[in-house]
Amino acid sequence: MNESPPAPVELAGVTRVYGSRGTAVRALDDVHIAFPAGSWTAVMGPSGSGKSTLLHCAAGLERVTSGSVRIAGNDITGASDAELTRLRRTEIGFAFQTFNLIGSLTAEQNVAMPLRLAGRRPERADVHEVLAAVGLADRRRHRPRELSGGQQQRVAIARAMVTRPAVLFADEPTGALDTKAARDVLHLMRRMVDERGQTTIMVTHDPAAAASADRVVFLRDGRITDRLDRPSTREVAARLADLEA
User: Residue 129: which domain range?
Assistant: First the structure.
């Protein structure tokens, strides 16, 4: 019998504590969750619920206090900084609210940057392919200041995708965008999952953004308290309101 491949990201009994003794804050508390391949999971919760900490621990940006984290079958819990850096350059893509593009570089140069950092020679065809996939083939020589906010976010997503990562982590990717630009970015992320099988984990406070995902996981006080599969915007908003009450 063939064994099922491991989930791209899996957290087992993960706890993250900041501070010590009387000032200790338990940001994550015994979290168990696996993120299936080719799926899009939105993570939501009230302010201080631990959703950003979950994302950072899952991506290897923060060390866990206890428990284990596996990415693409690799246990990263005790990995060295050098090992984590290599993993982030090959298996993980990031898209943040602030885009983090280099202003002096063109769109195609920004997209090629992760390949250069990984010691790989960027192939122009690969760079152009991901820019075309995000609808910016005709903007590849534009610098960030010459692009709208939505276009900059699409460049950031193309940059995250150029290494073909096992998982894309997105932290409030539509938080700085207007309604139309946010809708375009969410549509793009949906296509990445449906057409390319991209595993995506997204933290958001926006019920409309969360409803674009395959499932929504809710946190409160560092624990997973609920989950909705293929919910509507109204269902997400109602569940979030219950948590915040």
Answer: 37-46+82-244
